[in-house]
Structures are given as structure tokens and as C-alpha cells.
Here is the input.
Amino acid sequence: MSPDVLDGFFQATQYDTIFAVAIGCLIGLIIGMIPGLTISTGIIIVLPLTFVLEPEISIALLLGLYVSGMTGGSFSAILLNIPGTPSATATAIDGNPMAKGGEAGRALGIAITASFVGGLFSFLCLFFISPILADVALQFKSPDLFSLMIFGLTIICSFAAKSLVKGLLAAVIGLAVVTIGQDPMMGTQRFTFGQVNLTAGIHFLTALIGLFAIPQLVDNFADIIKGTDEGNTTKIKSVFPKIADLKQMLLPVAIGSPIGSFLGILPGAGGPIAAFISYDYSKKLSKNPEEYGNGSPQGIAAPESANNAVTGGALIPMMTLGIPGDPVTAILIAALLIHGLVPGPLLFVENGEFAYGVIFSFFWANIFNIIIALVGLRFLVKVLIIPKTLLMPSIAILCVIGSYALRNNFFDVYVMFSFGLLGIIMRWLDMPTVPLLLAMVLGRQIEEYLRVSLIASKNDITIFFTSPFSLFFLCLAAASVFWSFWAEHRSKQEQKQQT
Amino acid sequence: MLLLCAGYAYLTSNLPSRDIQNSTQPSFFPWIIVACMSLLSFALLVQGLLPHFNSEILARSGIPAKRIAIGLVLAIAYMVALPWLGFVAANILLFAGLMYLYGEHRPIWVVIGSIGISVAVFILFREIFQIRLTAGILEGLFR
Here is the structure.
């Protein structure tokens, strides 16, 4: 066993790291269960607090929030039939009927336990797959890395957008934003218009806060006007699952955990897709599929195990390749970069102790998630009565302070607001923001790898097709584009037939 | 999108070039972006996918346009005033405005909520997390 593994374990088991994980879990459960607040927004709100912390403590806190946010999302899905996070949508199908039948505690207990198993399974995947993948990734050269990142971008466009063209367009806008500032190869100023604040480019986090938080604040206007902002009045009895429920959970959890972990690895697939696929397969393989939709414990366990398994899966490409699996891991990359740590294969070589520390913090996050959720559930659900008239303005001022705190600069607040407007416009145009975000994370590296490859090959573009890794990734990118076009075409034809 | 693309292409064409052999110019990557953006914009045009950007879309979202407009004006006024008013005073005003927009019309709650939370958040960040937030016109109170 590598000494880094033990060092990482000890790093993650320090009392301050453990405390940070527990606090992160508590915040995550609260944020996850509040409808209208996604995990990304939660992390954005908490991120400025982590600037002053040590990197391992900062990441531990954010990981706790990430893991518990997924579980917290199921609480409001079960109690109010309003998913706290998009990943909990499938949980509401069976969770809410069970809660309406007077078994809210049982439904929540099943959701928490299934989340724990899913999370733990993905921890094992993260622990065993990451070092192997990092070893393979160490062999990648500039053309391979360029093609890998193009693959990452195309696949997220395929998953995140209803229309591939709009997804790709969003990604290209993100790449254009990245070109603002210094040219990474020669240091020439590009698109700065003489503005000193733009010389270092647009900070990824300010853009991200605007893109995610501002449209959500606007969306919540609609929720309040439509009157969907209701509170919880359900009484919760025991939340500890019974043996009979645990037996029933075996099959759906066995299906959901690997599905979630695998889909987590694919950039863009994310929790909602994993939850629905897992629900669907679990129903097909169940002996009593007719019970699904009417408060079946299996119908709660399948999506919950899958969406929590996504968390560990999404950390694999983030840690080993520097490619985020979803918006939350994109923010985690930004958090690492703020602390001067670059995620990717070299992280395991240069900062092995830290890399394994992150993996073990993820393990602790799953442990604290189940403990805090089961023990504190009755108190935690009181959060659901906090009025949005207080919550939303609080988020607004936290976003402003978060943007300002990055560089103590009012300019970043203006940038955040501009990206907020862009996010709203994109939402109205039905354009996804996730590809734009990923393009902003990867854009600079894409340009660097492309130009380094071309310089090395004396401007011969065949270099991208002669390397086996590069060719493999380009083929995958082409396949994801064609698959997406085909799926879009088929969906349109089905809609035509229905009408 | 085509206009954006044209503007970006114009700015790219004005980027300075470097005379280094076997090297790509600073405008190399932006030109690739221009090519991709124009190709995708035309594809979108051909597909007719772009939904009409009009009040219909806004109405579908269920948000009154008036409320959006007020929110926008409030946000712009806040950003203009922020460097001068500082984080406490500006946040109190923004908070109160947003509370009102989100439907809280009881003055006492608006006053208590906006002052209480704004001050608490300011103290939390400035004193506990040591993030240098300016207090602007209220600097004397928070020294």
C-alpha cells in the first residue's frame, strides 16, 4: 500500500477535518431539503467561507455538503412532493405516497439508508479506480489531453441540452469568455479593452455564481407567485428502517449503486438521469412492479442509492483527469485552484497525501451523512418552514459577498451580475448553462494543449489522429455527437407520431 | 448569435500578432471559436430551434415582467451604490427591496429582517472570516 494512502487517511481523520465534514453534512442536508436551492448554489454560498481555511479542511467541508445535499433533496421530495434537488425527483414518485399514507419516517429512513449504501459503494469505486486511472492518464501527452477535453465537452453537451446545437453553442460561448485576458502561450492581451480588471481574465467562480444563483433567485419568484412555496406539517415518527425494509432494499440498491457510480464518471450525466435509470431498471427487475408509484420502498431505495453514488463517480474524473463530472465538481475544481492545487493525474504524484485525504474525507462524509440525517431529522425538517422572503434575499447578499471576496474587487460583483443576466437569458432561450460552465473550466487548458500540440508537430494536425489515446477520445467525442443527434431526431419523430 | 459572432470576429481580427516561427498566433484559438460559433449559429437558424424571445417565454415562466424589471432596476441601483454605501447599508436596502419583491409586505418584518440579517452576515464575514468588506458610509460604526 502506498504511504500516501495512510497519510491521506490520517489527514482526513484529523479532528478539524472531521469537524469540517460534519458541518458540511449538516449544511448540505439543510440546503438540499430546501426546494429552490440546489447543491451548486449551496456550495457557492459556503465557498467564500472556505477561502480562509486550509485546503484539506475546505474540501472536506464542501464534500460533506455535496454528499448530504443529495440526501437532503429527498426530504422535501418525500414530505412535500417538491424535490429539494433535481436528483431527488424520482424519489418523490414513491416517497410522497408513502408519506401521505402516514409513513413519512419510514420513507425518509429508507432514503437515508439507500443514500448511505450508494455513497459508500461510490467511495470504493473512487478509492480503487482513481489511482489506476491517474496512472493511465500520466501517459497522456498534449494531443491526448486536448482530445480528452473535447470529449468531455461534447458529452456534457449531449446530456445537458435538449438540443445538441444549443449545448455546443453554450460551450463555444464559454470558450470565447475564456479567451478574455492574457494569451496563455505568449502573454498577449486579448479582448481586455484596456481594462486592468480583465487582464487576468474573468474569474471562473464569479461567472459561476452569476450563472447559477441569479437565475435561481428569479425562478423562485415564480414559485412564490404560483403558491408552490408550502411548508411541512407532516409528523415524523421513527426513521430507522426495519429489517423487512432492508431486505426489500437489497435489489434496488444493488442496481442503483453501480448505475450511479458509472453515470457519475460520465461528465454531464449527473444525479437526475442516474436516479431515473435506476428506478426504471429496478421496476423492470422487481417481482412486484405494480407497487411502484404507490409508495414502494424499492421505488425510494433505487433512485436514492443511484443519486448518492453519482457523487463518488463524479469525483473520479475530477481527481484523475481534472474534468468535472457535474457543476458541483466544477466548483470543487475551482476551490482547489484557489488553494493552488491542480486536479489531474499529477495530483496523485505531487500531492498524493492530499488526494487520498480527499477520498477519505468523502468516506467520512457518507458516515456523517447517515448519522446526522438519522439522528437529527426531526429537527432538520423544521428548516422547511423558513420563509423564502428571508431565504432568497440572504442568498442574494451572500452571492455578492462571495464574488467580492475572491479578489476584494467590486468589478467581480459586476461580472457576477452580468453572468446572472446571461444565465437568465440562456434559460429563456432554453440553452443549458452547464456546457458553458464546463467550457470555462477547461477552455484555457484546451487552448494550451491544442497550441502546444501544433507547435510540437510543426502545425501538422494529423498529430491528433496518430496518437492512439487521442484518436480514441476523438472517436468517442464523434460518437457522443452522432448519438445525441440521433436521439434528438428520434424524439422529434415520436412527438410527431403522438400528435 | 450571428451578431455576437461578427463582433467577436471583428475584435479577433484586431488582435496583435507575434513574429515567432512555427508558433500559433494569439488570434489562432479565437478564430477557431469564430468558426464554430458561426457554424452552430447557422445550424440553429436552419433548424429553426431558437424560440421567440418575447413576452410569451416570460409568461410561460410564470413571473410577471414588471417584477423582473423592478428586480433589475434594484440590482443595478445596488451595484452603483455599493462602493459608496458599503456592504452594510447597501445590503440592507437590497435585502428590504428583495423581501418586498418576494411578497413580504409587513414593514416591521422587512425592517427587522433586512437590518438583522445584513448586519449579521457583514459581521460574520468581516470579523470571523476576516474578509475585508468595506462598510462605506457606516465605517465609523464598524471600526
In short: The first strand of chain A starts at residue 181 and ends at 182. Residues 104-137 of chain A form the longest helix (34 residues). The CA atoms of residues 34 and 391 of chain A lie 10 Å apart. Strands of chain A lie at 181-182, 189-190.
